[in-house]
Design brief:
The structure holds two protein chains of two kinds. Chain A is α/β, with parallel strands linked by helices. Chain A is built from 19 helices and 23 strands. Helix content of chain A is about 35%, strand content about 25%. Classes of the chains: A alpha/beta, B mainly alpha. Chain B: InterPro entries: BPD_transp_1_N, MetI-like, MetI-like_sf.
């Protein structure tokens, strides 16, 4: 029996709150064996990130403290270790990568400086050898053009590249343990697949033990050997990954796994009577100017959206899917008049091209938006009741007691109680806030709702509830949804039709089952194959080789080649 | 970069043109009559009228403005009404002293302001922080003439460490520079403190800790360079504040700079000198901002000079 590299016993963490110390991690114990991947899984607030920070000695001071327990790294006890002692441990023996690659690197230092600094701190090599070592590390993490990357600054790299740099830094001293805190959550699904592959390969080559923290059961299934499920700071279940997915013992694990959307398992969409067309978009283009030169003239344009056409009928959900920067959110903003656009858009048969603010006002009664970040899209200094009622006031639809009645009705409609109306946004959970946003969007009884990544920031169990709410609203009122998302499994659950976008253009569109179960375009296939599957028994298919996406920025007068869509089946059209 | 510089210089010239117009209008509307000032109290109305004709003060506004502008483009800032000298000569003889004072004051306020801000941020919510923030509050609130006179009394009159006034040696610069920099030190310490606190909470600082770096290296290499970025733009704007401070401080310390020149000219409605000093100050502000914008991309690789 080998000894664990990392052994956590009865670890408790407390956070100071105005109401006194609150225990956020309560008596957690686990062992991490050499070469093993252990996943800490759980929803937000489960204490999984706290565990990682506690091990690293990086708990935010003075608010958080370890209240008890022990963390042993080999023979070294980490709890109570001095700052100087911890400096010898961090990155040298336990390294960590974080969720946000965009902000985890110093924007003022080159990649090389940030790498060599680590090497020199721990005396891995001499100053003269450091650049060579840094280059080798970038090769190890399979960064393209490593020589050039060394001289670059973080803002010149994509999210995936930055996470590779973070991994290179973490592996600089060949640590015994790598802690990865949601390492792929902020990344596109194809990039996520590459990063997870990379971590697996590096682990195999170096024998590093990995403690992976994630909320995504798909990631758990694809990477873990063993899983610890946390909830409210306590262990709910601990099991080898196959046992957990095959037969979860605890009620919470069963619930959690049941709530995970599984690509390919969504029930068939109900047959609906053909409704009237509520939104008709023809050759919509959005371009942003890039200025420069002596007279600050337009030098180039970002072709965010190129000649996209679609229409949505009442009671129908059209899903827009694609990776970051593909233009899907820009389409949503254009429809609401939030960015300048070209082309033709009609809402309920009314052309909105060329309408000014006054002309757009009545149109906005018919089309409303629900944004991604439920907290940031509410005003923190206004009661939620007032925020839901505000559109009714602005449009002069109701006032006085009628306004109050309407707002109360909306609250009940989205599953909240009317007495919550006098509270402020910070008193609600993320899921409740998104319900409030939905209530606000519904207040004008719109015909179309643009839902831009509306459930992406929510935990899976909450996500399922919000999706149910949206479905219910559609069934009752015949609402049409333009559902923008990067999450294929969510899209499969809600969409009647799917449009796949890449670099501002549509590459494939059609009925849900045609696009998701019989994808024809290379890009659609790649997207689908990259989605982590919450089934540890499945053998991972060979990944489709990545190709560089290209850039949406073109000099004035030039533009991307227009993709022609060919109909290969009823309503299923694919770019050649 | 050359295109950016050319565009910014063009913009700067346009801004300065606008400033000449606004200043000219303001001085035109001032009820005081320069001709009366030149002629003296006992002069007859006829003499005053003659002086007005001589100076072209009876011409329509736009003619006067046009005359001023065409001369200005030939490097001629006019002639002082009261001192027998060209404005450009007066300004040129006074400018070095003021520039010296300004540079000394900027250095003073940056050294004090940044140090105080850094220390306060690192000792956040502890007694040192509270003490330093009270100091910065006082330094922002205190009028400069009060500070100047107080410093003079304590360090020149009582202790005799520095001369009471005048110009010439390093010792002469200290008190005026400290007086002038006192206000800025308060501002910069507050800005630096909040900027530091902001940066200390950033993810990359946590990354630096996770690397096992020492506290000194994290602060010096990762935190301070990032925290100082928003300050750079402020230094450019700050030069404008200096110009108003310089008038007061130069009078208190008898410093022979353009602040004093401006003060005398305003009292005696010496319009060409007022215009000259205003143009020099405006140019300094515009150049200061331009300089700040040119320095920023050298420190922050994310800023591109388009």
């Amino acid at each position: 029996m080998t000894d664990p590299v990392l052994s956590v016993r009865d670890l408790s963490v407390q956070v100071a709150t105005p109401a006194g110390a609150k225990t956020v991690l309560d008596g957690l114990s686990f062992d991490l064996m050499p070469g093993e991947t252990l996943c800490l899984a759980g929803e937000s607030g489960s204490g999984k990130s706290m565990t990682a920070l506690a091990i690293m000695g990086l708990l935010p001071k003075p608010m958080c403290r370890i209240a008890g327990g022990s963390v042993r790294l080999g023979e070294t006890e980490l709890v109570g270790l001095s700052d100087a002692g911890y400096r010898q441990i961090r990155t040298a023996r336990v390294a960590m990568i974080f969720q946000e690659p965009m902000t985890s690197l110093n924007p003022l230092m080159t990649v090389q400086q940030q790498l060599t600094e680590t090497l020199l701190e721990h005396g891995v090599c001499s100053r003269a050898q450091a650049p060579g070592r840094a280059l080798q590390l970038l090769r190890d993490v399979q960064l393209t053009e490593p020589e050039r990357r060394l001289k670059q600054y973080p803002h010149e790299l994509s999210g995936g590249m930055r996470q590779r740099v973070m991994i290179a830094i973490a592996l600089a001293c060949d640590p015994e343990v790598l802690i990865a805190d949601e390492p792929t959550t902020a990344l596109d699904v194809t990039v996520q697949a590459e990063i997870l592959d990379l971590i697996r390969n590096l682990q195999r080559d170096h024998g590093t033990a990995v403690l992976l923290i994630t909320h995504d059961m798909g990631v758990v299934a694809e990477t873990a050997d063993r899983v610890v499920i946390l909830r409210h700071g306590q262990e709910v279940e601990s099991a080898p990954v196959r046992d957990l997915f095959a037969a979860p013992q605890s009620a919470y694990a069963q619930e959690l796994l049941a709530a995970v959307p599984r690509l390919g398992s969504a029930p068939a969409r109900p047959e609906k009577p053909q409704g009237d067309t509520v939104l008709d978009v023809d050759e919509l283009s959005v371009r942003f100017d890039v200025k420069g030169g002596l007279l600050n003239r337009v030098k180039a344009r970002v072709h965010a959206v190129e000649d996209v056409s679609f229409s949505i009928r009442a009671g129908e959900t059209l899903a827009l899917v694609g990776e970051s920067g593909c233009g899907k959110s820009t389409i949503g903003k254009a429809l609401l008049g939030l960015v300048p656009w070209d082309g033709s858009v009609s809402v309920m048969g009314r052309q909105i091209r060329g309408l000014g603010p006054a002309g757009l006002k009545p149109v906005r009664r018919d089309i409303q938006m629900v944004f991604q970040d439920p907290g940031a899209s509410l005003d923190a200094r206004m009661t939620v009741g007032d925020q839901v009622a505000e559109p009714l006031l602005i449009h002069g639809i109701a006032s006085g007691s009628e306004l109050k009645d309407r707002a109360e009705h909306l609250f009940r409609r989205v599953g909240l109680s009317a007495d919550m109306m006098t509270r402020y946004p910070h008193e609600f959970s993320g899921g409740q806030r998104q319900r409030i946003n939905i209530a606000r969007a519904l207040s004008l009884s719109p015909k179309v709702i643009v839902a831009d990544e509306s459930v992406s920031a929510l935990d899976v169990s909450v996500q399922a509830q919000v999706l149910d709410l949206l479905q219910e609203l559609q069934d009752e009122d015949g609402l049409a949804f333009l559902f923008i998302s990067h999450d294929m499994a969510v899209i499969e659950q809600v969409a009647d039709r799917v449009m796949v976008m890449r670099l501002g253009q549509v590459v494939e569109e059609g009925p849900r089952d045609a696009v998701l179960r019989d994808p024809r375009h290379r890009y659609t296939r790649r997207l689908l194959s990259a989605v982590p599957v919450p089934d540890p028994t499945r053998i991972r298919p060979e990944r489709i080789e990545t190709e560089s996406l290209g850039s949406p920025i073109w000099p004035v007068g030039q533009g991307p080649a227009k993709l022609a869509l060919q109909e290969i089946a009823q309503g299923h059209r694919v770019a050649s | 970069m050359p295109a950016y510089l050319a565009r910014r210089l063009m913009e700067s010239i346009l801004i300065l043109l606008g400033i000449t117009l606004v200043t000219f209008i303001l001085l035109y509307l001032v009820p005081a009559d320069p001709a009366r000032q030149i002629a003296g109290r006992s002069a007859t109305a006829e003499t005053v009228q003659n002086i007005r004709d001589q100076l072209g003060l009876n011409d329509p506004f736009f003619m006067q403005y046009w005359r001023y502008l065409t001369a200005l483009f030939q490097g001629d800032m006019g002639r002082s009404y009261l001192q027998r000298a060209e404005v450009s000569e007066l300004v040129a003889s006074r400018l070095p002293a003021s520039l010296l004072l300004m540079v000394a004051a900027i250095v003073t306020e940056l050294i004090f302001g940044l140090t105080i801000g850094i220390v306060a941020a690192l000792r956040r919510n502890r007694p040192a922080d509270h003490g330093l923030m009270i100091f910065s509050f006082v330094s922002i609130s205190a009028p400069q003439f009060v500070i100047g006179i107080l410093l003079l009394y304590v360090f020149a009159v009582k202790l005799g460490w520095f001369p009471i006034g005048g110009y010439g040696s390093f010792a002469h610069v200290v008190l005026p520079a400290v007086t002038l920099g006192f206000l800025g030190a308060g501002w910069y310490s507050r800005m630096m403190r909040s900027s530091m606190i902001d940066v200390l909470g950033q993810d990359f600082v946590r990354t630096a800790q996770a690397k096992g770096l020492g506290k000194a290296r994290i602060i010096l290499r990762h935190v301070i360079p990032n925290a100082i970025l928003p300050i750079i733009a402020m230094i450019g704007i700050d030069i404008g504040l200096f110009m108003s401070g310089i008038v007061v401080v130069e009078s208190v310390f008898g410093w022979p700079g353009i602040g004093q020149l401006a003060w005398q000219a305003i009292q005696r409605v010496d319009i060409p000198v007022i215009m000259g000093v205003t143009m020099i100050s405006a140019t300094a502000i515009v150049l200061g901002n331009l300089l700040a914008d040119l320095v920023a991309p050298m420190i922050d690789p994310r800023i591109k000079t388009k």
